[in-house]
Amino acid sequence: MDIALHETDSGSTMATKKKTDCRQYRIGDFARYLGVTAEFLKHYQESGLLDVTQRASGYRYYGFDQSARILQYMRLRNYGISVKEMGPFLEGGLDEAVGCLDAKVDEMRAQIERMQAVVEEHERIRLWFEERCAKPVDWEVCNMEPHWFLYHTNSREFLETSCVYDVLKTWGAWLPVTKSAMCVAQSLEIDESHLHWGFAVRESLLKKYGIPVNEAVRRMGFGKAFVFHFSGIPNGFLMTDIVKGEHPAFQRMKALGFEQAGDALLVHELQLEAPGAERRCCGRFIIPVKD
Q: What is the number of structural domains in the chain?
């Protein structure tokens, strides 16, 4: 005899005999009793996971005996199992099912770690932005932590190097821990093709989160660096100013008597750009300098 299982509020399980005369509910009522939406029921029914009775009136009716099935689907959904995956999952054995759930939980742990990293990075950005509100342009000279840079474009087109795309998806998934950034060569001809856009990340964060590196990724060890913080500069990321050495960071650095000692990194902290609107952005220019 078929049995429908339903968990009680106390956590115990009671068994109810499945009867052909079990109560039928219209879709809206059935959804309300189970804490789901009518769209949820339709989606699972159209995927072959629920049975429905379509009456002459056109209304859909669901039998009470399907309530346990829906609770099972809700549980699996919270593990991250898609509707498409549920059919094969339910047809497998218990060992296979637990192994599948183990894998989903591992994915959750990785997602939690990534979300926590985003929260921590945002807290740092928020403090940095509050400083920019008080002083939109500022600078400091410090011993800068090494950064890792993933080359992606030469400013005009995407690079065709296959190894870039072996790690690009992961680097992009770690934004804003990774940053959109521009690598600026120390000695430039007046040609924007010598500028490379890509992703940058501090070395400590790359190691902490296991962000992958390969031959497309370069370590930039700055040592002593002139760091130019800015917000609201209209041309803060204008490539023509950079190649001509006319960026405000270069001007301030030279006025203070510092000399560039290596390739620099221009880092986006935040950018707002809508079609037809003026770009609003803020960031940091890290320029290694000689002692």
A: 2
pLDDT (tens digit per residue) in 8-45: 344 433 344 444 578 999 999 999 999 999 999 999 99
CB atoms within 10 A of CB 177: 22
| pTM for the whole structure | 0.80
Q: Which domain holds residue 204?
A: 135-288
CATH number of residue 48's parent domain: 1.10.1660.10
Check residue 289 and give its pLDDT.
Answer: 97
pLDDT at 3: 42
- Residues 185-201 have pLDDT tens digits of 887 565 676 789 999 99
In a domain, 67, yes or no: yes
Query: Within 10 A of 163 (CB to CB), how many other CB atoms are there?
Result: 14
CATH assignment of the domain containing 155: 3.20.80
